[in-house]
Amino acid sequence: MLQGFLKKFAFAARPNTPEIRVPFPHGIKDGSASLKVTPRDWELEFLLFGPDLRYNSTIWTWPSYEFEKNRQIIKQGWDRYNDLKSQKPTKNLTLEEKISDGLAVYLNYYAQRNGVCLWGHEIFSDKQSYESFMKALDWCEKKGPELTEFSFEQSKIKSNRS
Predict the structure, then answer these.
(1) What CATH number is attached to the domain comprising 61?
(2) Tens of pLDDT along 128-139?
(3) Is residue 158 part of a domain?
């Protein structure tokens, strides 16, 4: 845990570190996500907007070394959402269940918020969007290391010119 913090801190301390950002290929309700790549590592960064301008946005990152753990947590959230949904909620019933830090399952009869949510922002609520999200995670897992290698090569070229 501390190594990840120190690695991020070392990058933050270098203002000229090259960085590549690629949009995440899955939409997030009231937010956005991108694959952020530096010469040493990659991460998935979510920017989640507040309900209106009175609220701050939330930035949530998935470092590459926690990617598989977070993928399992997302799958666990999807399974739990389906379990709750199969219980046939009745009128005026609202269920909210925390899965992990920032991730929760919502089931609301009035459909204000339904599905697996990240800090209250729905990331998916049906099988098609779940599969799309998981494919997007696969894409990140493939592209992250490739772009890290590219970014590392570019930084070596840039440092040789100096």
Answers:
(1) 3.30.2450
(2) 989 988 988 888
(3) no
